[in-house]
Design brief:
Layout: H1 2-5, E1 10-15, E2 18-21, E3 26-28, E4 31-35, E5 38-43, E6 47-52, E7 57-60, E8 62-67, H2 76-83, E9 88-93, H3 96-102, H4 104-113, E10 120-125, H5 143-150, E11 155-161, H6 164-168, H7 172-178, E12 186-188, H8 195-203, E13 208-209, H9 215-223, E14 227-231, H10 239-249, E15 254-257, H11 263-268, H12 272-281, H13 286-293, H14 295-300, E16 317-320, E17 330-332, H15 347-350, E18 365-366, E19 372-377, E20 384-389, E21 392-394, E22 397-399, E23 406-412, E24 421-427, E25 435-438, E26 447-451, H16 454-467, E27 470-475, E28 478-484, H17 496-512, H18 520-526, E29 535-538, E30 541-544, E31 549-551
Parallel strand pairs: 1-6, 2-7, 8-9, 9-10, 10-11, 11-12, 13-14, 14-15, 19-24
Antiparallel strand pairs: 1-4, 2-3, 4-5, 7-16, 16-17, 18-22, 19-20, 21-22, 23-24, 23-26, 25-26, 25-27, 27-28, 29-30, 30-31
Helix pairs in contact: 3-4, 12-13
Length: 556
């Protein structure tokens, strides 16, 4: 307060900039005084250190309203090194990826090791581990586990409630997670939910959603008081379609989130700054775009010291040369340039892949009469379509048919070596030869493999067990490419540049094998998520998400 009054010099004073007031959307030509990592005054100040920015624009650090750290394939310290230079200074993470693999211990570890990063990592306690009864994690998270997490500092609410059919039906198990008495802040997950079902979901106390894919869907949710998270993920690029909501009705109750972004997206386009840039390109004013990246997510998530350059707010400040590219000249975190510590990964976080022996016979599908259900991939979306198709039969077995773009898909349980395998068929992938597989398979993160050759599929699974997790590509009885992800089978322990290069090489291999998807490994991983319509697959079999039940391959 003495510094704010001008009685004492500030630690740092930023001079010569135009400061955005996110409250009035005005640009103020004032000094910014910083003390103890917080902004204490706007006006005319003196300080021990002066930073001259010469007409630059000063805006608050960007906030990602909903994301999964693990989807970056990077360890948490390396993720910070990747996104902070792009201007992201705070993320609100749902760590249900690591929770499915390591249980609540994994989330507690994340909270412990992320505390000293130059990136504020707030956590929403994972509500759906597993995402549905049709997935097999290491072990389910109980209400007691969630309560333990909610007692941690930096755990700020309940993460996306993916079992929306259970909530709508008033299932006791799901309602117990929403009524712990420790929080009333709950994120949603409501793909395509409309009408009375949406009303019921909101009546349970859920107040946000990041799954809207159309203007009409997002508008209905916003009309009912839901906060709409405009998502731009590696395979769910919904931003441009949803910006019409902002053009028509303003930025209130809207915010940006990345959900799941792979290294290539981070390297080539950026993070939240990419969403701000695209929004401005699409006709949103820079001020409105910045508000959706700063004070709106801070207000929704009750982060009262984040999201603004104003007295009492944490001094997370971006120095921008223009309001077009949104590539920061300088990033200040708590009033200083970021310093990145390194995180040591303990052995118990690495030893997570336990698979029963597999062979080509493990992927045998016996002949069935009539048509079969096929998962049809939808490019750049998490949604799939159920297709009915006559299978290709050879020697009494259902086999892949690359000529008709029909590949086999399997999910193999990898936490307890149970030997359980779900088998099916997938189309619109384009694979003409070989197989590819990953231990990143949302959300239970068992092994998911697609192939047109059963022996290559088995080879992929065995190699993943040897690596301790990762991504592999096989062809002609050989592993032709791989990326080890030894941290929980989800993340690399290598730098961003190395992970990006290996991912790019693997994607190039798949293109040579005919795969058309822009983000093939992220697309693969979401084929195992049983809470996004229409047809998905887990180690328990094919899941009809609309009916919310396991269904047979054959259509009888």
């Amino acid at each position: 307060m003495a510094v704010a009054r001008g009685d004492q010099p500030a630690d740092v004073v930023i001079k010569g900039g135009r400061v955005l007031s996110v409250f009035t959307k005005e640009w103020l030509e004032v000094d910014v005084a910083i003390c103890d990592g917080h902004v204490v005054g706007l006006g005319a100040y003196q300080g021990f250190t002066t930073v001259e920015v010469e007409g630059a624009y000063l805006v608050p650090g960007f906030i990602d309203a909903h994301m999964h750290l693990e989807s970056s394939k990077l360890m948490f310290d390396e993720f910070a090194r990747a996104v902070v230079p792009h201007g992201t200074t705070t993320v609100v993470a749902d760590p249900h990826e690591i929770a499915n693999v390591l249980g609540p211990d994994g989330i507690h570890w994340l909270l412990d090791v992320s505390a000293e990063l130059p990136l504020d990592v707030f956590v929403m306690a994972s509500s759906c581990v597993p995402a549905s009864p049709f997935e097999s994690p290491r072990r389910p998270l109980t209400v007691g586990d969630i309560e333990g997490l909610l007692r941690r500092r930096r755990t700020i609410g309940i993460a996306e409630m993916m079992n929306y059919p259970g909530v709508i039906a008033g299932a006791a198990a799901e309602m117990a997670k929403l009524t712990t008495g420790l929080t009333d802040h709950v994120d949603g997950h409501a793909p395509g939910l409309r009408g009375p079902a949406l009303n019921a979901y909101l009546a349970a106390g859920i107040r946000s959603d990041h799954e809207s894919t159309t203007f009409e869907e997002a508008l209905e949710k916003r009309r009912l008081g839901m906060w709409v998270m405009l998502r731009e993920a590696s395979i769910a690029r919904n931003l441009v379609a949803l910006l019409h909501l902002v053009r028509e009705h303003g930025p209130e109750h809207c915010m940006f989130c990345t959900d799941d972004r792979e290294p290539s997206f981070l390297v080539e386009e950026g993070h939240i700054n990419q969403m701000v840039r695209v929004a401005v390109e699409q006709g949103i004013t820079p001020e409105d775009a910045i508000v959706m990246a700063t004070i709106n997510p801070a207000g929704y998530h009750r982060l009262w010291r984040h999201g603004a350059i104003a007295p009492g707010y944490q001094a997370d400040i971006l120095v921008l040369d223009d309001l077009v590219g949104f590539r920061p000249r300088m990033v200040l975190k708590r009033g200083a340039e970021p310093v990145y510590p390194s995180i040591r990964v303990p052995e118990w976080v690495r030893q997570t892949v336990q698979v029963a022996p597999v062979s080509a016979e493990s992927f045998r599908i016996d002949e069935s009469s009539g048509q079969v259900r096929v998962i049809q991939l939808v490019p750049m979306q998490l949604l799939t379509i159920e297709q009915a198709t006559e299978p290709c039969i050879r020697d009494g077995r259902v086999v892949a048919d690359p000529g008709r773009d029909l590949a086999k898909i399997a999910v193999i349980e990898r936490h307890h070596a149970s030997g359980r395998i779900g088998l099916g068929l997938v189309t619109n992938v384009g694979l003409a030869r070989g197989a590819y597989a990953s231990t990143v398979a949302h959300d239970a993160h068992n092994i998911v493999v697609v192939g047109v050759d059963d022996a290559d599929m088995a080879l992929c699974v065995r190699r993943l067990a040897e690596l301790g997790g990762g991504i592999v590509v096989a062809e002609g009885g050989q592993i032709v490419g791989e990326l080890a992800l030894p941290v929980a089978g989800l993340m690399s322990d290598q730098p961003l540049a190395e992970v990006h290069a290996r991912m790019a090489a693997l994607e190039a291999l798949l293109r040579e094998q005919g795969v058309r998807s822009e983000a093939p490994f992220m697309s693969l991983s979401f084929l195992a998520l049983s809470v996004i319509p229409e047809l998905k697959i887990t180690d328990q079999g094919l899941v009809d998400v609309g009916r919310f039940e396991i269904v047979p391959l054959s259509i009888r």
